[in-house]
Design a protein that fits this description.
Oligomer: homodimer
Organism (chains A, B): Salipiger mucosus DSM 16094
Largest interface: A-B, 97 and 97 residues
Number of domains of chain A: 2
Structural class of chain A: alpha/beta
CATH architecture of the largest domain in chain A: 3-Layer(aba) Sandwich
Number of strands of chain A: 9
Helix content of chain A: 40-55%
InterPro entries (chains A, B): 6-PGluconate_DH-like_C_sf, NAD(P)-bd_dom_sf, PDH_C, PDH_N, Preph/Arog_dehydrog, Prephen_DH
Order of helices and strands of chain A: EHEHEHEHEHEEEHEHHHHHH
Largest sheet of chain A: 6 strands, parallel
Pathway (chains A, B): Amino-acid biosynthesis; L-tyrosine biosynthesis; (4-hydroxyphenyl)pyruvate from prephenate (NAD(+) route): step 1/1
Keywords (chains A, B): Amino-acid biosynthesis, Aromatic amino acid biosynthesis, NAD, Oxidoreductase, Tyrosine biosynthesis
Catalytic activity (chains A, B): prephenate + NAD(+) = 3-(4-hydroxyphenyl)pyruvate + CO2 + NADH
Chain lengths: ~300, ~300
C-alpha cells in the first residue's frame, strides 16, 4: 500500500510532520529529504528528520516512488522543471500547496508522461514553521483534499490511502471549486486577520504596548493566525488571485452593509446578522469539526 | 475590603461568573440577583446562583453596598432610572459594559449625588451566554479596566480591590481612550469575524455543508467569535459608534491596499506586511497575554 521510497522536497512544517506521521504509522519505506537552505538541511540532520538528507534535487528524487513538493507554491514550477528528467517512470508526484489551479499550471507541463501527477492539499497547519515545527499528529482528523484531474485511478487511490495512514480524511475535489472553498474557509480569514493586526499596530492613538497588553480574545486569535509563514501566504494570495478577489469583494460588500447599519443605528439588522452567524457555529460543532471544550479541539491527538 | 451586600442586575455570563468568583474568593457578603426574564430567575434559583434572587429592581438594590449593572449596554440607562430612587446613600454603582462613554452618558444623569458611580469593564468572555455559562475562573489574569471619571478615590480603590479579589488585573483608563482601545482589540475583530462567517454562509457556489466540513483553523476561530451574544454585540456597535467607525475606516484602507497588492501581483508588499504582523504576535507572547501551547492559554485556571 505504501511507497518503498518517498522524497520530501522542502522541509517545513508540513513535510516534517509527514515524516513523523509516516514513522508513527509504521511505514517501512525510505524517506529522503531535501531543502534549498544548507541551514535547514543541517537542522534536519541534527533532529533526525528523514532517513537521508540530500544536497540536491536530482539526488532526492532518484528512485523515489512518491515525490512530495512541499515548498512554497511560488517555487514549485521551478522545482518541477529541475526534477523532471530525474523522475523514476511510474512514480507519483504530488504537492501540499494551499492552492491547486496555479500549482497544476506551473508543475504539470514540466512532468513527463511516465509519472502520475496527483495534486493534494492537507488542510492542517499551525502558526509555526520550519523543520522543527513538525509533529506526527498534525493531520489527525484534518482533511486532505485531492484534486485528481485526469490522473490514473490507481495512483490516486494509493495517494489517498497514504494520507489516511497519516491520520487525515480525504476527499476529491474539482480544481476550481477547491480554490474557491479554500479562499472562503482559509485564505480570506487569514488576509483579514493580517489586516486587523496591521491596523492595530499602525494606530498612532493606541500604543503597541496597549494593543499587546489588552489584546482580548478576538484579537488574540487574529494575532495567532497573522503569525503564519509570510512566504507561504504571499504565494497563496498571488496564486489564488481570482477566488481571493471574488471573496474579498463579497466580504467588503457585507462589511459595508454592517458599517451602514452601525452608522444609521440600525440595531435590527445587526441583531439579525449576529443571530444568524451563531447558527453556523452550531453546524460546525454538530459536524464534529470543532469542540466546545476550552481547548477548542487543538490538543486532540486521537489517531 | 469587600462589600457586605452586592446586587447583580442581569444574570448572564459575566454576573454569574462574578458570583462564583466571589464565592471562590471567600467573600462573606450577601449577593442578591435580578434578571428581567422570569425564566432566567428560575434557572438562577435552580442552580444556586446568588444568595437570593429578587423579582424586582427595587428589591434587588435595597441596602446594597455595590450595585453591578450587568445587562446589555442598551438598557442600562433605563435600569439606572428605575433603581435611582432606591439606592442606599454611599453605595457604589458600577457596570460591566464593553463600552464606557455611552454607559456614562446613559447612566450617570440618573444617579443621585449620594452614590459613587465607578464604571468598569472586565475584558473577559466566552462565546456562551446566560446564567449557566458562568464559572469562577473567567476573570483570572484578565484585565478589568476602570474608568473612574470624577468618582471618589476611596470608592474607586475599593472596586479595584474587589475585582482583583475576583482574579482580574485592574487598570484605570480615560473614557475616550477606553472606547478606542476596545474598538481595536475587541469590537472590530468581532465585527469582521461576524462578516466573514456571514459571507461564507451567503455564497451560492460553496454549500453550507462544505463551509462547515472544511472549515480550517482561521475560519473555525472566526465562527467561535461570531457565536457570541447577539444582543450584547448589537449594543456594543450601536453605542461605540464613533471609535468603531474610525477603526473600520482604517481597516478598509489597509484591506484595499492589500487587495491592490494581490490584484497587481505585488508580492513584496504582501511579504513585508505579513512579516511585520508576525512581530506583533511575538510581543503578545512575551507580554504573557497568551501562550504558545496548543490550548492557547484558554484552559489556564491559576488563581
Amino acid at each position: 500500500m505504501s511507497y518503498p521510497r518517498v522524497a520530501l522536497i522542502g522541509l517545513g512544517l508540513i513535510a516534517s510532520s509527514m515524516f513523523w506521521a509516516m514513522r508513527r504509522a509504521g511505514m517501512q519505506g525510505h524517506v529522503a529529504g531535501y531543502a534549498r537552505s544548507a541551514e535547514t538541511r543541517e537542522t534536519a540532520r541534527r533532529i533526525g528528520l528523514c532517513d537521508s538528507i540530500c544536497d540536491s534535487l536530482e539526488e532526492v528524487v532518484k528512485d523515489a516512488d512518491l515525490v512530495v513538493l512541499a515548498t512554497p507554491v511560488g517555487v514549485m514550477g521551478r522545482v518541477a522543471e529541475t526534477i523532471a528528467p530525474h523522475l523514476k517512470p511510474g512514480a507519483t508526484v504530488t504537492d501540499v500547496g494551499s492552492v491547486k489551479k496555479a500549482v497544476i499550471e506551473a508543475v504539470g507541463p514540466h512532468l513527463p508522461e511516465s509519472v502520475h501527477f496527483v495534486p493534494a492539499h492537507p488542510m492542517a497547519g499551525t502558526e509555526h514553521s520550519g523543520p522543527e515545527a513538525g509533529f506526527a499528529q498534525l493531520f489527525d482528523n484534518r482533511w486532505c483534499l485531492i484534486v485528481p484531474e485526469s490522473a490514473d485511478e490507481a495512483a490516486v487511490a494509493r495517494l489517498e490511502a497514504f494520507w489516511r495512514a497519516l491520520g487525515a480524511n480525504t476527499e476529491r475535489m474539482d480544481v476550481e471549486h477547491h480554490d474557491l472553498v479554500c479562499a472562503v474557509v482559509s485564505h480570506i480569514p487569514h488576509l483579514i486577520a493580517y489586516t486587523m493586526v496591521g491596523v492595530a499596530d499602525d494606530l498612532r492613538r493606541v500604543s503597541d504596548q496597549e494593543v499587546i497588553k489588552f489584546s482580548a480574545a478576538g484579537f488574540r486569535d487574529f494575532t495567532r493566525i497573522a503569525a503564519s509563514d509570510p512566504t507561504m501566504w504571499r504565494d497563496v494570495f498571488l496564486t489564488n488571485k481570482e477566488a481571493t478577489l471574488e471573496i474579498l469583494g463579497r466580504f467588503t460588500e457585507e462589511l459595508f452593509a454592517l458599517q451602514r447599519a452601525i452608522r444609521t443605528g440600525d440595531g435590527e439588522t445587526l441583531f439579525d446578522y449576529f443571530t444568524h452567524t451563531r447558527e453556523i457555529r452550531r453546524g460546525i460543532l454538530q459536524a464534529g469539526q470543532d469542540t466546545d471544550a476550552p481547548d477548542f479541539g487543538r490538543i486532540k491527538t486521537e489517531t
